[in-house]
Amino acid sequence: MLSRPSEAASISAAGGSLAGQLLDALRSDVITGRYPPGYRLVERDVADTYGVSRLPAREALQALRAEGFLEVKKTRGLVVRSWSERDVTELFDIRQALEAVACRQAAANRTDADVRALRQAVTAADDAVAADNAPAAHNANALFHQLLVTASHNVTLGEIMAPVLFRVQWLVRQIPDPHAVSHDHHEIADAIAGRDGPLAERLAIEHAEHNRTTTLVAMFGSGGHGD
To answer: How many domains does the chain have?
Structure first.
């Protein structure tokens, strides 16, 4: 039986479709570890736990599966997916390529407001690390990467990257020290502020590679590629 999350009470009161709100809540609960890999998500239990009918529960679960968070097991139905080393490596390949484009374009297209938002996210992550608040640090780091895409002012890139960033958020939360994820953000923000596209692109590639290695070590004890 699912434990009732804090978001459940707000689903029917907030705007937007019930299925969309439930998708956001379920995705957040998977990313933050409330439902770990292998956890079985049953339509009836989801509906009861989040206070919705079975139709939006079914739609939200189908959407979450399409985003790559769930998989079907023959004897168990829908469960939170597990990751292999190859899965992680392939996801970071995609993230690395797309975020390099985002950073290069952000350096060319960013506004002063974009730079302020990036620096605020970096500061928030630093403050959270200093306070030993890992969840807040991970949230600030995730926001930084979302803001990189925003600063690119490339709508299509944002649409493509959204599901990738959701899954990356999920993976990097396996890293016990959020500073290992965020320490490159200062340099990336500076390069974008200085409109240095080649530098921003190079830093993004190096940052993704560093994150890949750190995530693989945290999850599998190895920084290499594997199946």
So the answer is: 2
